[in-house]
Amino acid sequence: MEGSCGGAGQTAAAAWQGRIGATNIGRLRHGKSSSSSSSAVARGVTAWHLRVFAGVVGVMGCFLLVASLMMSAVHQVQFRNGAISRGFRGLQELKQNSVKTEEAEQIMHPRLLQMATSAITKNESDSDSVNFALWEEPYKQARKWKPCAAKHSLPDEVPGENNNGFILISANGGLNQQRVAVCNAVVVAALLNATLVLPRFLYSSVWKDTSQFGDIYQEDYFINYMKSDVHIVKDLPPHLQSLDLESIGSQITDMDISKEATPSEFIKIALPILQQNRVVHFLGFGNRLGFDSVPAHLQRLRCRCNFHALKFVPEIQRAGSLLVQRLRRTAAMRTEMDKQLFGSNMVDDASLAVTGDAGPNRFLALHMRFEEDMVAYSLCDFGGGDAEREELQAYRETHFPALATRLRNTSVSAEEQRSLGRCPLTPEEAGLVLAALGYGRDTFIYVAGSQIYGGAARLRPLTRLFPNLVTKEDVLSPAELAPFRGFSSRLAALDFVACASSDVFAVTDSGSQLSSLVSGYRVYHGRGRAPTLHPNRKRYAQILGEEEGIGWGGFAGRVRNMVEEYKRVSARPRGRSVYRQPRTPGCMCRAAGDGSVDF
């Protein structure tokens, strides 16, 4: 392009010079008078100026055209390489809003981090021959399990309004704890032959969110989907609303019901009260219903509730669909997971149309459960010295007073907590796992969660290994996030959507409800193509404890074996949550060798 414009300018200049030379030669050849010559020269000079001006304009136009094309090309490259780049506002907020903001990195494993830095460079250079096991799960085994909780009850099982009364639930915790409480409440209502009132969500001093059921989930869809199993209403009837449930003995707290209680315990404690007063209020209801003791037909209700009936409100679905499309960098992709998460509210992001020919982008979602509440509750040491210990103890005094009191009377060993696998992974430790598994420096990672404890100092070792980190604040504009600001549960719903839709989901804390629910959702709706990386924290602590005596190859091999063990496909082990591992009777069905289905 530059050559053609330059050539045009040179040709024009030569033509102008030729024309001037021809005018002077013609004047001398024909012997014109001086006045005539002067007039001719004047006319020639004027024409020459006009032609020079036109030539200059033409050359400048060529340069402008080239510049415009170059800027357009740069824009396309930037868009293709970072369709969602918005200055990494999310990671900036993680740093600014965190409790600790030291400039120096907080590194607990310097030797491993140095080896990992070298290793991921090789991982990136080998990206063309990358091991596809990094992005897949054992498909042949996983595809044998099919979702089967969508089956409705038989017509003669449809519940009526004439039953034992009403069950009222007040659920504590954040979004994911409340989701578990809702589905457990469905089972309890069916067990007691009662009508379920739409659950209420208690305000938490930790989560600070006033959202109620209808702010997060579609009420009518939930009621209609479950109507063949449980009768659900939005409010208590007027004659029961005025009752003081505590004074009449109709309030049951967590102190009255065992953790993971059997169905018979609910029948023994709650049913007599329900039959007498026609209403029972479970206050602070959460993990109060076990798993192994629940029969398959009631287990199915849990799965119908969690995997089918609970749909986010359209506002969350639309924002979530934009989030996922931008992470994939394409609007053309539609998966079974999309259908379940977004329904008819999946919005096409027109700005992604120009990148459709580049194909979808694979991304890994990392749930970095390293907020201050988790760190404080773990009673672990994370290398911050006396300042860290004093700060975490002050947090426990405010938010976990019972735990703080126990610490004053009992000594707890941080080393023992770590050896037992009770410490959440730091960002550095999570990065070491990903590097050991073979992910390259160019891996695109969505970080779920917020308020990383330790801020920039704690996050920097992870970003050193994997610089392509984004959060929902990086992907969605401030205007798109505005309706969810100040509502932690609604923001957590966006994280749920992104993690469930990711090509790979990496867990750092097995005790997290988000990790548990997302893992199960991916098993149930992933069709054998939604792997989850789940480090065994106890084994990982043992590996890290021996880091001085092993090389990178030995470390990486042991980490891979640890993660691969979790990826093995099997039925739900006894004592495990059906929300995390739904391959269990009543929830998922396994195809038998002859093509039949084993329920």
UniProtKB/TrEMBL annotation:
Task: Indicate yes or no for the key word Transferase.
Answer: yes
Classify the source by domain of life.
Eukaryota
Q: Which biological process annotations from GO are given for this protein?
A: fucose metabolic process
Q: Which terms in the GO cellular component ontology are assigned? A: membrane
The main place the protein resides is membrane
- Similarity comment text for this entry: Belongs to the glycosyltransferase GT106 family.
Which PANTHER family does this UniProt record tie to the protein?
Answer: O-FUCOSYLTRANSFERASE 2-RELATED, O-FUCOSYLTRANSFERASE 8
Name of the protein this chain belongs to:
O-fucosyltransferase family protein
| Taxonomic lineage of the native organism | Eukaryota, Viridiplantae, Streptophyta, Embryophyta, Tracheophyta
